[in-house]
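Hi W., the nicotinamide-adenine-dinucleotide complex you wanted:
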Amino acid sequence: MEKVSVIGTGLMGNTITLAIAWADVPVIIYGLNDTETENAKNYINKEIETLIKSQLIDKDKAEQITESIEYSTDLKETAKHATFIIEAVPENLEIKLELFSKLESYCAKDTIFASNSSSLPPTKMAQNLQYPERVLGAHFWNPAHLVPLVEIIRGEKTTDRFIERAKELIYTIKKDPILVNKDVVGFVGNRLQFAILREAQYLYETGVASIEDIDKAVQLSIGRRLGVTGPFLSADLGGLDVFKSISDYTFSDLSNQKKASRTIDELVNNGNLGEKTGKGYYDWNEETGNEIKQKRQEELIHWLKKDLKNN
Ligand SMILES: NC(=O)c1ccc[n+]([C@@H]2O[C@H](COP(=O)([O-])OP(=O)(O)OC[C@H]3O[C@@H](n4cnc5c(N)ncnc54)[C@H](O)[C@@H]3O)[C@@H](O)[C@H]2O)c1
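Structure:
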């Protein structure tokens, strides 16, 4: 079994650690200092409580999960122990390059360096390393312990044996990997997500529909179906003659904007960053923020229970 270490005690490091420990795979999470590891422990324990309340696990399992996690502030020890490292430090190439260089001086040459970056290509992250073939993307989605997909991204120099080991680990932790063969910006999931966001911005800014109605259109139509049928399955079920014809007359009319659009630009420039600042496309307060997050979590748990029943 791989010996896994997670670097970074932010949102993603914590939730990835929980996902790994949930599958009884021992994991060390490294934080910069005691405050960071203490915060990670509190976050993880709170999420474990939610799993118990949702009847996804019982108290014995919770204890097992807790015992599978070790918290560390010693990077060298964390790295030396590992055969598989997942970094979840901030989305900043310099920080990741510096981290990987340090790790390379501590780790055996076949220890995998997986990055959870949402957009930085593994090829770039491997650029200064002596053994770049071990670097790949392992892009978990938030919250990683509830969302099944992990994108495994191949860098230009990543070799098959590391890709295979990464896929194996993802199966071991009962998640579903997909292989992204080229490290294009945004990989697969985020490209699709942002294609929808670009069109949503365009529809709103050209007065076709309101923000609320555009959200509703996704939530109550394609959103309901996409959990079962992705775009190709949907096309096959709808009939390819129909989908080809709609593609032919719609594509030239869709947004092809090259940058974030006017409204989101203005909001960001005015410090309105969404739920975390109380204003974005919508107005937020603590109650409305918690309500929607709770609803989303309940939905993810509902899906996960279905997955577990089917496997
Ligand atoms: N937030 C998301 O929804 C999400 C989803 C998928 C992927 N990601 C990716 O995951 C990575 C982490 O994102 P996040 O949202 O958890 O960020 P975050 O800011 O919540 O956490 C980053 C953590 O790393 C710590 N850190 C900074 N420098 C470090 C270093 N040199 N060594 C160890 N720790 C260090 C920070 O103190 C912080 O605790 C990013 O690359 C991001 O693109 C984020």
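The mean pLDDT is 97.

W.
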